[in-house]
Each structure stands twice: as structure tokens, then as C-alpha cells.
Amino acid sequence: MAADRTSGDEIGEPASRKAAGERDEWNTNSGRGGDVSEAVVMGAGSWGTALAKVLADAGGDVTMWARRDELARVVDTEHENPDYLPGIALPESIRATHDPEAALRDAGLVVLAVPSQTLRANLDDWCSLIPEDATILSLAKGIETGTLMRMTEVVAGTTGADPRRVAVLSGPNLAREIALGQPAATVVGCTDHDRARLVQKQLATGYFRPYTTDDVVGCEIGGACKNVIALACGMAVGVGLGENTVASIITRGLAEIIRLGVACGAKPATFSGLAGIGDLVATCTSPLSRNRSFGERLGRGGSLDTAQAATHGQVAEGVKSSGSIRELAARHGVEMPLTDAVDRVCHEGLAVQEAIEQLLGRSTKPEYRHDW
């Protein structure tokens, strides 16, 4: 089932209103009327479905692959994804299929919308089907368990694609809000500027504004780590703590993310942008955030199993990535106390209240150091 689940960070809830109309003042490059290649979204979770809608609204030809044949048929004929974005009408131009070979045959842009920890297994099945000149765009946010690889590294290593063909999308992008046409911005990270600009053009609509960057490392470290910090925020809320605590966790969490990112080769400025503080704030504060809500359930005394059951069997990405991020930090000699605490709560049986006490009991120090 994992391949159909969103690789973003959102709880699927019924839509309460119809999609908003396009707002042209947000749109400096809509992509309409241009030479837009065939886009294929591999994954029919909430984020994959929302991005397929964005691509179609931008004027592209879009095919969406779903792991389950019955879901593909519903999306293709009823133009709605009742499992992950119920109540939201999808453009009739979106085609859906269960056949990966048919989906990928003419792809110019391949969007990987599957969870981080299943990405490698999915690519093992798909890599021979991906056209050699296609741009590959990863939506997954995580650090692979065991290898400690970022998602674009997994993509390049598994498919054999030149890393310059592989891009990442990151930003404050809650799928349901985007599917409703609410204005949002994002960042396309790619070391090939021309490819980044092409993806930017394919995604630009009257409500979705993409920027570009060559800092792929920063985008991916920010995207993976923010899920863990959102779990910490949720845990704090779950035990009854207030906004001061949440704001403090977000701020100190950002410091952790910057330290690790810089150690891995990222640009510090990236974390002051959409892929850093933007994504972090949205994930840590929104009731739509699966990681935030998952953390709240843990803070109220729930187990991983009960929290997973409450989110329709979907484990938050931060739970799966906390250990690998902790290992990556240790490899680089980076101190990440919040991440350590979250991982110990999730996987070592540490009580949330005890984790809070241990964090507050740490020695005092300056807010900033020369190395962040």
C-alpha cells in the first residue's frame, strides 16, 4: 500500500469547499502555450494527486500511476481520488493507469510521489522503463535507512541517471490546500539550471509559484529534518504545552537543520527560504500536517501503533527518518538534541515528558556559534 501514499506531509480529510479560482497576479509564467512535455506522476497519494492537478492546470499532458488498479480506474473515469483527496475534482485531462510501462513510455518529466523508505524498491521496478532523457523530480522527503542517502542520491544511484537530470521539490506545500487552488510557493532544486527552469515552467499556475535553486542538498536536508521537528511540536502540544514551547522548538529545530545541512554541503541561505523555514513552519503548525498530528497522539500517551491506526495506517515520515537523520548527524559530528529526543521517544521507549525534562536540563550556552 505504501506506494500509493503521499510522500508529503498531510492528513487526508474530506474537502470542505471547492477549489478556488486561479489568481493571475500570482502567475508570472503559467506554462500555457509553451512546449510542455508529457508529465508522469508515479504515485497516487494526496501529494502526488495534488501535483498532477498542478501540472494539468499549467497546461501539461499528465498521466498518474496508481499501485491499485481499482484506484486508477476511479481516478481515470470519475476524475477524483476518493482515497487521498476526497471531494476535490481533478481535471479530465489527467489520465490514470495501473501499468507502469504504459505510464512511463513517453515521459519527459517523471515525478516520484512515493514514500522515502520505499523509493528504492519502486525504482528497482521502474528504472528500465524511464526514458533516458527524462527529468526525474523527487517529492519524497527523508533520509534512507541504512545507506543514509538523500532521495536524489537514491534516484541517481538506482536508475543510473546523471545527477543533473534529477531534481527535488520542496516548500510549504500541504497537498489539500494546493489542490484547492490556494496560493502557495515552492522550490525546484536541480544542479542543471536549464532543467530547473523547465520544471518551473511546467509547474507554474495562477496559484502555485515555483522558484529555482541549485542547492539540492539544502532542499533535501530541510525537507527531511522538518518532519522530525514537527513530531516534536506535536508531542509538546499533546502534553498540553503552548505556543511559546512550539515557537521555541521550531526555532531551535531550525538551528539543528542548518547545522546538519551546512555539514553536508548545503548553503545556509537555503534554510531562510521556502525549503527551510517555509516548509518547517507549515509542517510544525498546520492541523493538516501528518507529522504534527502524529506527534500530538504520541504526546497524549498513544503508541506508534495507535497513532498509525488513527492516520489510516500511514506512518509519519519523521518517525521513519528520525533514526537515519540521527545517524547522519553523528557521522558529521553535528549535535541535534531535538532529533535525538524524538528518535528516542519513537524507537527507544523514552516518555515524552521525560524527553522534555532532559532537553530543559541541558547545559546553557550561547544562542549562536560560528558554526551555527
TrEMBL record:
NADPH binds at residues 46-47, 67-68, 84, 141, 175, 290, 315, 317. Its EC number is 1.1.1.94. GO terms for molecular function: glycerol-3-phosphate dehydrogenase (NAD+) activity; glycerol-3-phosphate dehydrogenase (NADP+) activity; NAD binding. The active site is at residue 226. Gene3D superfamilies: N-(1-d-carboxylethyl)-l-norvaline Dehydrogenase, domain 2, NAD(P)-binding Rossmann-like Domain. Pathway: Membrane lipid metabolism; glycerophospholipid metabolism. Keywords: Cytoplasm, Lipid biosynthesis, Lipid metabolism, NAD, NADP, Nucleotide-binding, Oxidoreductase, Phospholipid biosynthesis, Phospholipid metabolism. One of its GO terms (biological process) is phospholipid biosynthetic process. Catalyzes the reduction of the glycolytic intermediate dihydroxyacetone phosphate (DHAP) to sn-glycerol 3-phosphate (G3P), the key precursor for phospholipid synthesis. This is Glycerol-3-phosphate dehydrogenase [NAD(P)+]. The lineage of its organism: Bacteria, Bacillati, Actinomycetota, Actinomycetes, Mycobacteriales. The gene is gpsA.
